[in-house]
Every structure is written in C-alpha cells, then in structure tokens.
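User: Could you go from structure to sequence for me? I need the amino acid at each position, not a summary. Structure tokens:
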C-alpha cells in the first residue's frame, strides 16, 4: 500500500491495513476519519473501512486502510509554536499586544514558497511566503502568529488557515515573514 518511506533508519509504508476483531472495537464500527494508534504511538487516519466479514472462527473482522500523515508528508518539525495576542493597557492607557502560546508540541512542516526583497518602514529585507502543514486541525485565526526559528525575524504572520479538504490531506496555514 503506497511507497515505503524512511522512518528511523528503517523503511515502512505510510499506508497500512489494520485488521480489528469486532470484539476489540468498543465505540461502534470504525469509520473513515477515525484515528488508529499503534503500540509505538504512531497515529494513522482511517481512509476506508471494509468489514463484517467472518473469519475462519466465525468472528466479525473490520479491515481499515489507514494513512500515517506524519510519514506521508514528512512532518518532522516539532519546535514550531502558534501564539495568540492578548491586549492590555500600558501605563499611558495605550493598547499593547502581549503574546502567549496557544498551540505547541505538534508536528508540522514549514515550506518556503516565495522569497522576494521588500521594504518596510525604510528597512530593506526579505519577505517570504510560507506554507505550514499541520498534523491535525487547530483552531487558528489570522490574528495569531507562528514562532519558527527558520524565519529571519523568528515569526511568521498568519494570513489564512485552510482545513484539510480530504481525509488524506493536511490542514495548511498560509503565512509570511515580513522584514
């Protein structure tokens, strides 16, 4: 099922089939979109489910074709943080944004799409467009920012969030680095 991909020095497929005896499935039959977690805490998204076939001993078995999105999309970064602003008033009564961590510890992949020279407030620098592929859906808004060491300033401004369009796709953040 699919091409093998590297994983800790060994090759394994991002797609895999799991067989579940019905007696082990406690929350009703599996369905596309569910998650399967193996003994090594790898998460697999269920793409298709076939089942209710009886095996040789008369037990019902569910066959789930699953995809490990972390392997399929090579999500290797874990040092990315998403921050949200909190407004507070300073001593003069002026609103000041303070940033606090909203999401951290998730796997993602940051891809540079475009790099161009830009000028902001008489400072010339590089303005880059980025796509941040996330391992799971997050409640992200365009008021938040991405903290990433690969950005020149350390921050990426969030432009738009795109939820996953299909079970085998990932949510994506459109972001840019401004000088």
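Assistant: Here is the amino acid at each position, in order:
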């Amino acid at each position: 099922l699919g091409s093998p991909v590297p994983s800790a020095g060994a090759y394994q497929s991002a797609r895999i089939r799991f067989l579940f005896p019905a007696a082990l499935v406690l929350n009703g039959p599996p369905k596309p979109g569910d998650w399967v977690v193996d003994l090594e805490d790898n998460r697999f998204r269920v793409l298709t489910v076939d089942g209710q076939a009886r095996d040789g001993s008369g037990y019902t078995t569910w066959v789930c074709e699953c995809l490990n999105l972390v392997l399929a999309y090579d999500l290797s970064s874990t040092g990315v943080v998403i921050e949200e602003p909190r407004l507070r008033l300073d001593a003069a009564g002026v609103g000041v944004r303070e940033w606090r961590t909203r999401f951290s510890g998730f796997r993602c992949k940051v891809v540079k799409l475009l790099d161009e020279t830009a000028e902001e407030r008489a400072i010339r620098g590089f303005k880059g467009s980025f796509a941040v592929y996330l391992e799971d859906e997050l409640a992200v808004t365009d008021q938040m920012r991405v903290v990433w060491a690969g950005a020149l300033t350390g921050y990426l401004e969030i432009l738009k969030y795109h939820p996953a369009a299909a079970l085998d796709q990932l949510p994506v953040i459109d972001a840019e680095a401004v000088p």
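One structural detail worth keeping in mind: The two ends are 44 Å apart (CA to CA).
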